[in-house]
């Protein structure tokens, strides 16, 4: 009988094990019904789990599918991948988060993951009553700045319907097949770049947008999606699905997010140091060009501009006065009768600024720059194109140039342009350039004058001014 004793022990163990498996599971071990509903809703929304027939899995296959999705979610959040709804997993599921799925196949435009242009427009379609419009505008502006500081992006606020990104606050069902869930839970969601709703950001109006829910952080995260970024597994990342709240004025984009946005749009362009303003009292001071634009007399020096209007002198970067001009100005002149101004830059090329004489200081930036020629030897028959050809050759020879214009008011469309280089000058009269040139000394300039820095004719006074260093002749 001794040989039966081991088999009796094995049989007792199997019976005891079977009894243990048939005992009811305690409430602490089996997830509650509301926990199962929370988990299923969470996994369907953020991990594309197929909906089951009820709140609990009814068969082994459903149980296996649920476990796989739980493990996938646990892996994304760096949790222990048990496949069970433990307390740590449920705690993550209950946190406030973004409404965009954590998996990457949520794209509506799989062929377009970024904006084609680096200048992106946005519009605020609907404000929240929880904050003032100024507070909302500031939060969005700071959120956009986070991304424009890390990549060569420029954001422009507009009021028309064709904005690339539209930001709005809405409740529950709001027309995009992704209804909000009320207070807490999902705070906002966004769409990746594309047409129609692409790039748009929606914020849940059922939330109380105060210091409790930092609008800046939520907006900065969602705008990352609007620019083409997915969620990050790095808990310190701005693109982590669960929100962490930051101070917008002092926030710096983490490395993980910076690398992501730069992979799409490149590294930011290094900002040039602001130009040193020339010292007007410097004994060696001279101007590069002088022109009359409408009612303003404009002086150019390097990248700085001075404008005089009604005895008021304004000083600032040339890019502020003429945003399209990026190089130092060699010469410029304006034809008020034609509504056209010509600006010659350091490369010998000219830009034609249409409508500049009618433009105010505020509107000037809206005018487009149009180059008036393409090839130096294939010229349009106009004084500007002939001058441009001449100035390109002069630029190669390192000559200093000055241009002035005289309009004959008695003769329609009659224009005479005098181009000065060193001690010589050339004349363009209407569409013909004279074949000969003259000497500035024929006009009484002293022998010590080796070149003229700038020249301008002010028809209002009937005077012509020649600028040489800090002096001028008229």
TrEMBL record:
<feature type="binding site">
    <location>
        <position position="330"/>
    </location>
    <ligand>
        <name>Ca(2+) 4</name>
    </ligand>
</feature>
<dbReference type="GO" id="GO:0005615">
    <property type="term" value="C:extracellular space"/>
</dbReference>
<dbReference type="InterPro" id="IPR033739">
    <property type="entry name" value="M10A_MMP"/>
</dbReference>
<feature type="binding site">
    <location>
        <position position="231"/>
    </location>
    <ligand>
        <name>Zn(2+) 2</name>
    </ligand>
</feature>
<keyword id="KW-0272">Extracellular matrix</keyword>
<feature type="binding site">
    <location>
        <position position="221"/>
    </location>
    <ligand>
        <name>Zn(2+) 2</name>
    </ligand>
</feature>
<feature type="binding site">
    <location>
        <position position="174"/>
    </location>
    <ligand>
        <name>Zn(2+) 1</name>
    </ligand>
</feature>
<dbReference type="InterPro" id="IPR024079">
    <property type="entry name" value="MetalloPept_cat_dom_sf"/>
</dbReference>
<dbReference type="Pfam" id="PF00413">
    <property type="entry name" value="Peptidase_M10"/>
</dbReference>
<keyword id="KW-0482">Metalloprotease</keyword>
<feature type="binding site">
    <location>
        <position position="182"/>
    </location>
    <ligand>
        <name>Ca(2+) 3</name>
    </ligand>
</feature>
<dbReference type="GO" id="GO:0031012">
    <property type="term" value="C:extracellular matrix"/>
</dbReference>
<feature type="domain" description="Peptidase metallopeptidase">
    <location>
        <begin position="111"/>
        <end position="267"/>
    </location>
</feature>
<feature type="binding site">
    <location>
        <position position="164"/>
    </location>
    <ligand>
        <name>Ca(2+) 2</name>
    </ligand>
</feature>
<dbReference type="GO" id="GO:0030574">
    <property type="term" value="P:collagen catabolic process"/>
</dbReference>
<protein>
    <submittedName>
        <fullName>Matrix metallopeptidase 20a (enamelysin)</fullName>
    </submittedName>
</protein>
<dbReference type="Pfam" id="PF01471">
    <property type="entry name" value="PG_binding_1"/>
</dbReference>
<dbReference type="InterPro" id="IPR002477">
    <property type="entry name" value="Peptidoglycan-bd-like"/>
</dbReference>
<dbReference type="GO" id="GO:0006508">
    <property type="term" value="P:proteolysis"/>
</dbReference>
<dbReference type="GO" id="GO:0030198">
    <property type="term" value="P:extracellular matrix organization"/>
</dbReference>
<feature type="binding site">
    <location>
        <position position="130"/>
    </location>
    <ligand>
        <name>Ca(2+) 1</name>
    </ligand>
</feature>
<feature type="binding site">
    <location>
        <position position="332"/>
    </location>
    <ligand>
        <name>Ca(2+) 5</name>
    </ligand>
</feature>
<feature type="binding site">
    <location>
        <position position="189"/>
    </location>
    <ligand>
        <name>Zn(2+) 1</name>
    </ligand>
</feature>
<feature type="signal peptide">
    <location>
        <begin position="1"/>
        <end position="22"/>
    </location>
</feature>
<dbReference type="InterPro" id="IPR006026">
    <property type="entry name" value="Peptidase_Metallo"/>
</dbReference>
<feature type="binding site">
    <location>
        <position position="176"/>
    </location>
    <ligand>
        <name>Zn(2+) 1</name>
    </ligand>
</feature>
<feature type="binding site">
    <location>
        <position position="288"/>
    </location>
    <ligand>
        <name>Ca(2+) 4</name>
    </ligand>
</feature>
<feature type="binding site">
    <location>
        <position position="239"/>
    </location>
    <ligand>
        <name>Zn(2+) 2</name>
    </ligand>
</feature>
<keyword id="KW-0964">Secreted</keyword>
<feature type="binding site">
    <location>
        <position position="207"/>
    </location>
    <ligand>
        <name>Ca(2+) 3</name>
    </ligand>
</feature>
<feature type="binding site">
    <location>
        <position position="181"/>
    </location>
    <ligand>
        <name>Ca(2+) 3</name>
    </ligand>
</feature>
<feature type="repeat" description="Hemopexin">
    <location>
        <begin position="449"/>
        <end position="474"/>
    </location>
</feature>
<dbReference type="InterPro" id="IPR036365">
    <property type="entry name" value="PGBD-like_sf"/>
</dbReference>
<dbReference type="InterPro" id="IPR036375">
    <property type="entry name" value="Hemopexin-like_dom_sf"/>
</dbReference>
<feature type="binding site">
    <location>
        <position position="200"/>
    </location>
    <ligand>
        <name>Ca(2+) 2</name>
    </ligand>
</feature>
<feature type="binding site">
    <location>
        <position position="198"/>
    </location>
    <ligand>
        <name>Ca(2+) 2</name>
    </ligand>
</feature>
<keyword id="KW-0378">Hydrolase</keyword>
<feature type="binding site" description="in inhibited form">
    <location>
        <position position="98"/>
    </location>
    <ligand>
        <name>Zn(2+) 2</name>
    </ligand>
</feature>
<feature type="binding site">
    <location>
        <position position="225"/>
    </location>
    <ligand>
        <name>Zn(2+) 2</name>
    </ligand>
</feature>
<dbReference type="InterPro" id="IPR018487">
    <property type="entry name" value="Hemopexin-like_repeat"/>
</dbReference>
<keyword id="KW-0865">Zymogen</keyword>
<dbReference type="GO" id="GO:0008270">
    <property type="term" value="F:zinc ion binding"/>
</dbReference>
């Amino acid at each position: 009988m001794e040989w039966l004793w081991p088999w009796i022990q094995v049989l007792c163990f199997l019976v005891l094990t079977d009894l243990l498996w048939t005992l009811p599971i305690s409430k602490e071990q089996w997830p509650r019904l509301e926990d199962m509903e929370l988990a299923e809703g969470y996994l369907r929304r953020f991990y594309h789990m197929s909906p089951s027939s009820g709140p609990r899995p009814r068969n082994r296959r459903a149980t296996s599918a649920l476990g796989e999705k739980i493990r996938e979610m646990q892996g994304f959040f760096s949790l222990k991948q048990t496949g069970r709804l433990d307390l740590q997993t449920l705690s993550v599921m209950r946190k406030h988060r973004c409404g965009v799925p954590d998996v990457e196949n949520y794209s509506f435009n799989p062929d377009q993951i970024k904006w084609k242009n680096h200048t992106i427009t946005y519009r605020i379609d609907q404000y929240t009553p929880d904050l003032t419009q100024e507070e909302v505008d500031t939060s969005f502006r700071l959120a956009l700045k986070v991304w424009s500081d890390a990549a060569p992006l420029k954001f422009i606020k507009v009021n028309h319907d064709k904005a690339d990104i539209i930001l709005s606050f809405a409740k529950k069902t709001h027309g995009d097949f992704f209804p909000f869930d009320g207070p807490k839970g999902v705070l906002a969601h966004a769409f990746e770049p594309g047409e129609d709703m692409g790039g748009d950001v929606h914020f849940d109006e059922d939330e109380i947008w105060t210091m409790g829910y930092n609008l800046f952080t939520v907006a900065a995260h969602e705008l990352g999606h609007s620019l083409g970024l997915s969620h990050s597994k790095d808990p310190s990342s701005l693109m982590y699905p669960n929100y962490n709240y930051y101070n917008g004025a002092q926030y710096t984009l983490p490395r993980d997010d910076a690398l992501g946005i730069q992979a799409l749009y490149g590294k930011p362009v290094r900002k040039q140091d602001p130009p040193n303003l020339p010292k007007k009292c410097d004994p060696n001071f001279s101007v590069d060009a002088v022109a009359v634009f409408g009612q303003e007399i404009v002086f150019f020096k390097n990248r700085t501009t001075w404008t005089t209007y009604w005895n008021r002198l304004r000083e600032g970067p040339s890019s502020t006065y003429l945003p399209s001009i990026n190089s130092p100005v060699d010469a410029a002149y304006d034809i008020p009768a034609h509504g056209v101004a010509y600006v010659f830059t350091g490369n010998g090329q000219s830009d034609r600024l249409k409508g500049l004489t009618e433009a105010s200081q505020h509107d000037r930036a809206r005018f487009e720059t149009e180059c008036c020629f393409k090839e130096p030897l294939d010229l349009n028959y106009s004084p500007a194109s002939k001058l441009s050809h001449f100035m390109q050759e002069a630029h190669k020879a390192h000559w200093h140039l000055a241009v002035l214009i005289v309009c004959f008011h008695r003769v329609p469309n009659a224009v005479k342009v005098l181009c000065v280089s060193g001690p010589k000058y050339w004349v363009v009269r209407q569409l013909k350039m004279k074949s000969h040139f003259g000497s500035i000394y024929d006009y009484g300039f002293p022998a010590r004058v080796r070149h003229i820095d700038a020249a301008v004719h002010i028809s209002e006074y009937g005077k012509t001014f020649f600028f040489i260093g800090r002096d001028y002749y008229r």
